[in-house]
Amino acid sequence: MIDPPTAQPEAPERKVELDQAVEFAIQLLVEEAHLVGWTRIEFLTAVLDAANYRLSVLEEERELEADNP
Question: What is the tens place of the pLDDT at every residue in 38-65?
Answer without folding.
Answer: 999 999 999 999 999 999 999 999 988 8
